[in-house]
User: What shape does this take?
Amino acid sequence: QAQTVIAYDKERQALEVQLDYSANSDVSWSEAKINTWIDGEGIDISKTNQFRFDVTYPEEFDGFGVKIFANNWMVDPNNALIEAEASIKEKDKVYNDDGTITATVKVGYMKGIETPLNSICIGFVGKYSDFVGSIYVDNAEIWAVNVGVALPETSGEVTKVDISKMPESVVMADAEATPQ
Assistant: This one.
């Protein structure tokens, strides 16, 4: 059973997620999840409708899936405020000279969620993948995006997660996961 390692990469100034999807590559899929909990009351997402972040990964890992689950575990741990699968669009990819791709992952949700968000889980899914290597997560943000409807006035401020302190508060979502 492979262990996912999570660390802060000072050189890249990003969260490093070391993946090993070699165990089940011929029969199934593997998923590594990272969670973060926000202190205090949480983040007001009532005037926003998009969670997004950048991920940098080797070109050989292109085609993986991303799942997002966010809630307020203090109010109702079983009620998802955001629950979605994201696809990485070609227009959101930048091919880097070092053989990596940096992509912006975007997940939309309905505006008007009144419960503050205080937990975000990002899952990286390797479908029949034998990938072993690191990916890097950076620039996690919550936005208000105009999708063809009138949005109420906002301050224009972006809530940005400070990932430099995340290794102390980020854990595997399921440390007891087994290959079965």
